[in-house]
Amino acid sequence: MSQYTWYDYIKKEVFIMNYEWKKEEKEIYLPKAKAVLVSVPKQRFISLKGKGDPNSCEFSEKISVLFPAAYSIKSQYKKYCKSTAQDVLYDNYSVNPLEAVWDMTEDGKQSDKLIKSELIYEMMIAIPDFVPDEVIAEGIANVKKKKPNPLLNELSVITMEERLSVQILHSGSYDDEPASFKLMDQFCQDYNLRRTDDTHKEIYIVVKTVIQANLKTVLRYDVCPK
After folding, report:
1. 8 Å CB contact between 166 and 184
2. What is the pLDDT of residue 89?
């Protein structure tokens, strides 16, 4: 005879499921190719800060550290769900895409052209809000043991508060992003909005492609009424 009751089966079938950002957070991660206004909820991230050209080895190395940390946290969460006596709505989740907040040094802002070496960034990966803080800490500790890297000591857990933003899905080369930003700026003008600062966020939805035209990046900046 099975050790589980009918309630256990119903609970497992109905309440325990995989959280997929593509389905649950479609509004903020998969917009259309036109500017839209969106309310971005409060989110928690693991992040690394840096400065310089995104085509540099340093930038790539930071990415190679961030994703193992994210997957280590995911693995730790699955262990937590198996061991905890508390009810959980999700026992697994899909790791979110890479995101980065971009700014420019004061010297870079004075230039008429983009100087990539003067870029300032904070790259990050969102962690679902149902993952306990202690699970995040344990996941980071585990990856430090299994895949030691000095950059892991620079890893931070940050929270970004709820905010109003304008965003668009940009298709194609990163160097062609100004055209999409113009559409966003025009949207702000049409709806009497203004940017709150000079930073913007990029979310890298499709990156593994050799064809530049197939790249998919969400461009976003925070706004407020004029």
Report:
1. yes
2. 85
Please give the Cα distance from 26 to 31 (Å, whole number): 7
Residue 79: its H or E element = helix 57-83
Q: Where are the alpha helices (DSSP H) in 163-226?
A: 177-190
The pLDDT tens digits of the residues spanning 151-185 come to 999 999 999 999 999 999 999 999 999 999 999 99
Question: What is the CATH number that goes with domain 43-161?
Answer: 3.20.80.10
Enclosing H/E stretch for 166: strand 163-171
pTM score, whole prediction: 0.90
Q: Which helix (H) or strand (E) covers residue 126, if one does?
A: strand 119-127
Burial class (CB in 10 A: 0-12, 13-18, 19+), 135: buried
Please state the CATH superfamily assignment of the domain spanning residues 25-41+163-226 in this structure: Regulatory factor, effector binding domain (3.20.80.10)
Reference 75, options 91, 55, 51; nearest CA is 91
What band does 32 get if pLDDT is binned at 50, 70 and 90?
Answer: very high
DSSP state of 115: -
